Amino acid sequence: MFRRIRFSSLRNRRPVRPLLALALLALGWALAGQDVPRYPSPVDLAVSPDGQRLYVVCEGTDELLAVDTAAQSIAGRVKVGRVPQGIALSPGGQRIYVTNSWSDTVTEIDAASLGVLRTLPAGFEPHGIAAGNGSLFVANRIGSDVSAIDLSTAQDARHLPAGRGASYVAASPGGQRVYVTHIYPNPGPFRSQPESEITEIDTEHQVVVSRTRLHNAAGIFHVAISRDGRLGLAAQLRPKNLIPLAHVAHGWAFGDSLAVFGEDIGDAVQLPLDELDRYFSLPFGVAIAPDKSKAYLSASGSNEVAILDLPRLVEAARSPGRAALANDLSASAAYVLARIPVGRNPKGIALSPDGGKLYVANRLDDTVSVLDTAKGRIAATIPLGGAATLTAERRGERLFYSSRYAFQGQFGCANCHLDATIDGLSWDLEPDGFGVDIVDNRSLEQVGDTAPYKWNGSNPDLQTECGPRTERFFFRSQGFAGADLEDLVSFIKSIPLRPNRFRQPDGELTPAQERGKAIFERTTRKDGTEISELLQCFVCHAGKDYTNQQLAEVGTFKETDRSPKVDVPQLINVGNTAPYLHDGSARTLEEIWTVFNPKDQHGVTNDLSKDELNDLIEYLRTL
Amino acid sequence: MQMWIIAGRCAAGAIVAAAAAFLPGAEVIGDQKAATGFVFTEASKYDPTAWMEGRDRFPAGAALKISTGGARRALAPAFHASADATISFDGQRVLFAGKPTAGDFWQIWEMPLAGGTPRRVSAGQGDCVRPLYLPDERVVYTRLATAGSEIEAAALAGGEGGRLTFAPGRYLTDDVLRDGRILFETGRDGQRELFTVYPDGTGVEAVRCDHGKDRGDARQLSSGDVVFTSGARLARFTSALAAQTDLSQPALEPAGPVAEVAPEAWILALRGKDGRFGLYGWDAATKQTEPLVIPPSGNAVQPVVVMARTAPPQFPSALVPTRTAGNLLCLDARASRTPLAGADIRRVRIYTRGATGEPVLLGQTVPERDGSFYVQVPADRPLRIELTDGSGRTVRAEQGWFWMRPSEQRVCVGCHTGPERAPENKVPEILLKTIVPLKMLGDTP
């Protein structure tokens, strides 16, 4: 997902003059652009209404490529914003809209000339996009909302609440409705089953009209609506984070499935894509044939595309025993017709207008596979160029997103670290015992210099964390070793920091953030008494990553924990990484102090007012 | 008849000329592997199920032959008996069961396919048969005894084997699956069933719970399907289905595992009208057989293709050998693929096997409202679970035994749910109540 740019060495996290910081960042960007190989990394696709152009969003080179579908060659390039993710066409195909997830904008492009017409504002980390009723509807991942961008005024006119990590959007025919999915589960009680939703928006009135519940699902990806508007499909994960991960067989770690919803179905139904001994790992892209005969899905971890018999899928979704099918690994035999190997890490897929060709963006191969849907085989593979040599980071990225190392290919690193982030879940990992040491899944941003690893700090380096530990207790099969392991670690260390949305563009803190900073760095209580050093926030959360890399006892010990001491976590982009605490029991930053710090063992906070805690949170979000 | 030419469909969908009768210079190309010949066992007498009754499958001896480049030769001509060949992952060596003299036990040996002096791998007394390569420089094989058999794993370099099976019965190694598990069959009351176990002896379970007829002689194909004999027919397990499926097959009765030359192109041992077994090529696409090796007397069985193949992933065992018990968590004792007839399950009892074969109760527990229970049981001992109702009546009891290894952490959806049932994501109520398993250790220290 990300370019190989190392900001960490250029960035000073302690007070830095804003202009100097910006200059260093710019210098780093320019140097990186010269020295680091860049790969197109296609993530999403759209086909022009006449089928002659395929538009490919390349997050690695910040481009939109226009591919001549007849010649199967690149016919044009458009520079867009940073790390583009999603694409939509205007109803007639005259305009192309590309979301720029790191610029928080949408680039409007003239399809005929491939000229950039406008840059439109969006929310925090825009991903999926769809057009409807004169507006664009953009899912903002960090904002967990949907921007309604008025095309006449070019304003991000309205933000509608969606699920946490809102990411993908599909419009109904005519654009009266848009359907939005999200990749992180909505906040819920500790150790409760994850809940997700498909948010339905009335585009005319710009209101949320329904939230289709997806129980026990977390990680909902692309969504597609049939041409008659009666059937929706969304690719999704069913993680098994609440049961001890003592083995992997029989879908014990993840279920790869499909949410089926719409008038054809009634209540949403979740149907599996896995088999007994073979998994369709990390389903991502989804498309529905114009005649509703077939559906197509990409598996970004298994490197495959599945062809589904849609009438049989609907039949299964309507069957009396449909609820039980979600965990039946033999169910997919009824509706999965074929699984076709494609390139590495297939992401977005798009059908030609006649449904005869399916285009698949192979992100980590920098190619597009062309599936002949009538013959059910790959007819061509279109190269998208990019750096010819593979860096260690790129090789490691391929390992990170591959599911081939886990037992029977069930999952990969990216299952829990979605797009190299988090999954918003707490897991019961077996090596500590059943029901013991429930652990929150931590972010990978800037982890390179934060050893030791694991919440109990038992892994001294990333090689240990990602090598023998992952092999023995997660994959349950031969994992990474030797040069592969070094490549993987190189990639993880290279995962760049996403722009912090809570910091002002000029780098200055708001008054509230300044007040919060003062609380973070205070050494005395409000009554003037001294706070012991170990209870001063900035003593443990110290250094450029806001961790002293030590174990600390902060009063969060539970009977299910083996030790009261936990590794001090880094606080980089902490506003994005809920839930909190070692076991994920705090749903929000505020709960850390209002619920889980009654004795002031996790910093002194009980003398703070509600407003002061809010100030502290405002500051923490800027880190 | 050595002019057999078949057509098979390779994984990429292209048609390849396959087998080509292993003519001089002929190759089979598929997934970058090339079959350069095949190995088989020639024996005057062959009783494929004799092992289930403690008898020798080759009571009159046997001889491994290799057919390559249109020529045949004995692989271990100095041996009184040799059989059960399997080819190394690099396609260069052969592992087999052999007896240098008639008075020797069957032991495991290895030698280069190109020829040379066999090297003994297994150690100790007793018959060791059906060896298979493991990907970590170990081998797995079956140790036969009068009262039963065991599956053992040992270093390929040689030495004492370590047991992988810990329940009474008769076991026979069949294959090492592409996911790294060991596929084996058990025999009881004249019926065989297929099971898998991880290479450290953990996780023993049935391949499927559809209870098909007499299933054995299983081998995994390049597609991932497992083909085996079921009764007098060939049958298949495919990843997508919870029950065995039939497949097109020759009219003659098959014996022993198939040898895959290319997808849909196999070498089979078939019983001729005279009752003897010979080797035939079978083209599933055209449904035609071609005789390959029909000895003038005796039988030709156990075909194995000489071909390099990708080694399965190594299994990273997490066992702590010094422990004496394992933990078992069941999510729902009431879950079953076959109805429990409205029974009210109140107790879960776990038995081990006494010195004279009698069941010995290790303990009992009350499942939680959601059916979950969490117990600690002795390692490397036969175990059996029984469900009872409020009056103590047995509602369901396992017929066979299973086992757990030292420090094994075992989880299951239910007591009889089948491998097709994935778990529901929900904290088991027993783990909300306690994280300490109920000890059912009997006399285990």
CATH architecture of the domain at 511-620 in chain A: Orthogonal Bundle
User: Rg of chain B, please?
Assistant: 23 Å
Count the E strands of chain A.
32
The largest sheet of chain A has its strands arranged as: 1-2-3-4
User: Structural class per helix/strand content of chain A?
Assistant: alpha+beta
Fraction in beta strands of chain A: 25-35%
Could you list some keywords that capture this structure?
heterodimer, A: 623 residues, alpha+beta, 4-stranded antiparallel sheet, 11 helices, disordered N terminus, B: 445 residues, mainly beta, Neuraminidase, Immunoglobulin-like, 2 domains
Report on this structure.
The complex is a heterodimer of chains A (623) and B (445). Chain A is of the alpha+beta class and 623 residues long. Among the domains of chain A are: 1-36; 511-620, Cytochrome c-like domain (Cytochrome Bc1 Complex, Chain D, domain 2), CATH 1.10.760.10. Chain A has a 4-stranded antiparallel β-sheet, with no helix packed on it. A 4-stranded antiparallel β-sheet of chain A has the order 5-6-7-8, with no helix packed on it. A 4-stranded antiparallel β-sheet of chain A has the order 9-10-11-12, with no helix packed on it. Residues 1-33 of chain A have low confidence and may be disordered. With 445 residues, chain B is mainly beta. Helix content of chain B is 1%, strand content 45%. Chain B has one helix at 429-433; strands spanning 6-9, 15-18, 28-30, 33-43, 63-68, 71-74, 81-87, 93-99, 107-112, 119-120, 127-133, 138-144, 149-155, 162-163, 170-176, 182-188, 191-197, 205-206, 215-220, 226-230, 233-237, 245-246, 253-262, 265-271, 277-283, 288-293, 299-307, 325-330, 345-353, 359-365, 373-378, 384-389, 394-397, 409-412, 438-439. In chain B, strands 3, 4, 5, 6 and 27 form a 5-stranded antiparallel β-sheet that branches. Chain B has a 4-stranded antiparallel β-sheet with strand order 7-8-9-10, with no helix packed on it. In chain B, strands 11-12-13-14 form a 4-stranded antiparallel β-sheet, with no helix packed on it. In chain B, strand 19 and strand 20 form a beta hairpin. Chains A and B meet through helix 6 of A and strand 34 of B.
